[in-house]
Amino acid sequence: MQFNHGNMVGPTLAAELASLAARGWAVDTAVTVLRAHGVRRPDLDDATSTRLQEWSLWLRVPFSAPDVDSTCDAINVLLESAASRPSLSTHDGHKPALPDPECVAGMLR
Fold first, then answer.
1. Is the pTM of this model over 0.85?
2. What is 21-81 written as a DSSP string?
3. What are the per-10-residue average pLDDT scores of the chain (109 residues)?
């Protein structure tokens, strides 16, 4: 599967919604953000706005983690909800990284 780096709508939209949640959620601002990112039906009812706000706050958790290992744990919680199942880890004093599938150690959990 090819990843198109030129089309970052999902990550940039998620980042902007997470930032909005940190600043203080406002439905009209969320709708403006959705429109700016080309969401076809950006209008939000109360229930959908609440769910989107909760999701946006959930994305913020890694940014408030107290240390690298806690940040990795918080990111892994997010990754577990994804369609595929990557995981982030630290070991031997190295920076956090995804396992390298070409490396035998990368295939072990």
1. no
2. HHH---HHHHHHHHHHTT-SS----HHHHHHHHHHHHHHHGGGG-SSHHHHHHHHHHHHHT
3. 59 90 95 91 92 92 91 88 69 68 41
